[in-house]
Automatic annotation (TrEMBL):
<protein>
    <recommendedName>
        <fullName>Ribbon-helix-helix protein CopG domain-containing protein</fullName>
    </recommendedName>
</protein>
Length: 76
């Protein structure tokens, strides 16, 4: 039995960014095999939202590279 797609109300946004940012978003799209630039932005928003929620709950966002560990400070 196949799942029916969920209908969600959509809103169109017009986003102005520099060429460098557009190029970076497109590179991320290619690296992650995302279907579109919009999908990259949706995924980025989901990650940022999760990090903010965890940070507000007293958690820390850390990046660990071998023995080096750094805290990522989020701007709420």
């Amino acid at each position: 039995m196949s799942r029916q797609p969920t209908k969600r109300e959509m809103t169109r946004l017009n986003l102005a960014v520099t060429k460098d940012i557009r190029d970076r978003i497109e590179a991320i799209r290619d690296d992650t095999h995302a279907e579109s630039v919009t999908e990259v932005i949706r995924r980025a928003l989901a990650v940022y939202d999760l990090l903010l929620i965890k940070s507000k709950d007293g958690g820390q966002v850390l990046i660990r590279n071998g023995d080096e560990e750094r805290e990522v400070l989020l701007i709420p």
